[in-house]
């Protein structure tokens, strides 16, 4: 899920879900769906953080002088 | 003053090309020695040549002037001059008579002192500031977790190493995109501008770091070049300037969205600490659990309250009926004749009907007298109608 979205984006969505649940004005069926979605977002975020190694990409310098 | 020879054809004076050129040359030679300021755009020096050739350019109009200087003089100046540098050249106009080419014969060259640079920088700074390029409201917030960090660096391995090491240590899940380019000397400004373009057009780069580990005032000049400053201001993503220099911050620092004193400090600015991020995530998850549980608890409590009301409803209904009945009973009671008897009245009956008029009985008749409590059987002694 959401593989192409940025970490910050996923984290923001998780935060929104938590805030909505904390406000508590959602129907109960929605609350359960929101909770599941929140759990999923949390797992994705943790996976993104863990087990990753610094990736380095070199761009070829484009030298206008040559 | 040597005279330029001419030929005479009848009444016509005619000059040969060489004579003409020589005449012009002599005329130019009478012009005074003066100083010319320009940027060195071409510099050709060869041990086998008697002269060094250079082209001077006016950076504002692009006008050029070819100049020569004796190679020995040039070497003695020991300027280590590079193309792109601004100089003051002393000399005078000179004609290369063979080709009638105008040039400048230099007797000495001086690199423009810092004073000149500072003045130009100050003017540029004022101009860009007036355009609002350095305004605080233009500064963009750095992304908290960039998909990739673009790094513009020179051959300076230390700056690059410090930055990459800091990023890797704080946030191992990071990605960096590095573009190494020329950061000083001739053509550096153009190289930096094109590296900024290359990095900012990378689809994942969310923030850009200009990393250079300090340098002399002159080394850092490209970072104050107008094209570089404008490229920084116009960048698609926020820019962190880590062009280390204590005083006289290069102008790109002012146009950048954030500045860092060292590449290490820049690393700490552009990526979050993974440990802190994990803690924050864990806290969010606890809130998610709590919020979901609290939500369900609230629903359950509401449900229980509803159940309780449902269970109480029949009894409540009965009570309400009973109290209505009691009320009616009381009203009934108030209307009862027995209540009147309580106040001392009596009902006199003959047979089953109540006696309302004395004429209803005759002397000697039997009547029943009902009191509030008990009754009397009596006989009528006298009738007074």
What does it look like?
Chain A has helices at residues 7-23, 28-49, and one strand at residues 55-59. By secondary structure, chain A is mostly helical. The N and C termini of chain A lie far apart (45 Å). In chain A, helix 1 (7-23) runs antiparallel to helix 2. Chain A has a domain at 7-49. Helices cover 59% and strands 8% of the residues of chain A. With 385 residues, chain B is α/β, with parallel strands linked by helices. Chain B has 3 domains: 7-112, OB fold (Dihydrolipoamide Acetyltransferase, E2P) (Beta Barrel); 134-275, 3-Layer(aba) Sandwich (Rossmann fold); 339-379, no CATH class. Chain B has helices at residues 17-29, 71-77, 114-130, 157-170, 188-200, 226-234, 251-255, 263-270, 274-335, 337-342, and strands at 7-9, 12-14, 34-44, 51-57, 64-70, 86-96, 101-111, 148-153, 175-180, 205-212, 239-243, 258-259, 347-350, 353-354, 366-370, 375-379. In chain B, the strands form 4 sheets. A 5-stranded mixed beta barrel of chain B has the order 3-4-5-7-6. A 5-stranded parallel beta sheet of chain B has the order 9-8-10-11-12, sandwiched between helices. Chain B has a 4-stranded antiparallel beta sheet with strand order 14-13-15-16, with no helix packed on it. In chain B, a hairpin with a 6-residue loop joins strand 4 and strand 5. In chain B, helix 4 packs parallel to helix 8 (263-270) and helix 5 packs parallel to helix 6 (226-234). Chain B is rod-shaped and about 195 Å long. Chain B starts with 6 loop residues before the first strand and ends in a 6-residue tail after the last strand. The model of chain B has no long low-confidence stretch (mean pLDDT 88). The chains are: A mainly alpha (66), B alpha/beta (385). At the A-B interface, helix 1, helix 2 and strand 1 of A face helix 4, strand 9, helix 5 and helix 9 of B. Strand 1 (55-59) of chain A pairs parallel with strand 9 of chain B, so a sheet runs across the interface.
């Amino acid at each position: 899920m959401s593989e192409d979205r940025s970490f910050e984006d996923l984290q923001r969505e998780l935060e929104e879900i938590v805030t909505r649940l904390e406000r508590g004005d959602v129907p109960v069926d929605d609350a359960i769906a929101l909770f599941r979605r929140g759990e999923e977002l949390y797992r994705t975020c943790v996976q993104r953080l863990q087990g990753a190694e610094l990736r380095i990409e070199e761009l070829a310098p484009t030298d206008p002088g040559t | 003053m040597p005279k330029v020879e001419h030929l005479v054809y009848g009444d016509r004076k005619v000059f040969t090309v060489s004579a003409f050129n020589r005449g012009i040359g002599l005329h130019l030679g009478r012009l005074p020695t003066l100083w010319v300021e320009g940027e060195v755009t071409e510099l050709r020096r060869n041990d086998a040549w008697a002269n060094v050739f250079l082209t001077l350019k006016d950076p504002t109009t692009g006008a050029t002037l070819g100049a020569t200087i004796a190679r020995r003089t040039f070497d003695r100046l020991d300027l280590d001059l590079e193309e792109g540098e601004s100089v003051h050249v002393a000399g005078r106009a000179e004609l290369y008579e063979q080709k009638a080419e105008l040039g400048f014969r230099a007797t000495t060259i001086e690199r423009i002192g810092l004073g000149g640079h500072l003045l130009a920088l100050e003017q540029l700074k004022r101009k860009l500031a007036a355009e609002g390029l350095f305004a605080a409201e233009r500064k963009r917030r750095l992304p908290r977790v960039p998909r990739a960090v673009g790094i513009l660096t020179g051959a300076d391995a230390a700056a690059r190493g410090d930055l990459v090491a800091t990023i890797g240590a704080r946030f191992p899940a990071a990605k960096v995109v590095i573009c190494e380019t020329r950061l000083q000397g001739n053509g550096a400004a153009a190289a930096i501008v094109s590296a900024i373009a290359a990095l900012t057009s990378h689809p994942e780069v969310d923030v850009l770091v200009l990393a250079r580990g300090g340098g002399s005032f002159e080394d850092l000049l490209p970072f104050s070049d107008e094209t570089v400053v404008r490229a920084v201001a116009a960048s698609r993503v926020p820019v962190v300037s880590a062009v280390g220099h204590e005083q006289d911050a290069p102008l790109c620092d002012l146009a950048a969205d954030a500045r860092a004193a060292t590449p290490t400090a820049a690393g700490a600015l552009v990526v979050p600490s993974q440990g802190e991020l994990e803690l924050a995530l864990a806290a969010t998850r606890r809130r998610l659990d709590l919020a979901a549980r609290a939500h369900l608890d609230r629903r359950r409590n509401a449900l229980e309250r509803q159940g309780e009301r449902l269970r109480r409803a029949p009894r409540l209904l009965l009570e309400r009926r009973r109290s209505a009945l009691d009320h009616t009973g009381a009203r009934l009671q108030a209307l009862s004749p027995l209540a009147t008897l309580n106040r001392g009245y009596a009902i006199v009956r003959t047979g089953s009907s109540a006696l309302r008029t004395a004429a209803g009985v005759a002397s000697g008749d039997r009547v029943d007298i009902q009191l509030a409590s008990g009754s009397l059987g009596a006989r009528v002694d006298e009738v007074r109608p």
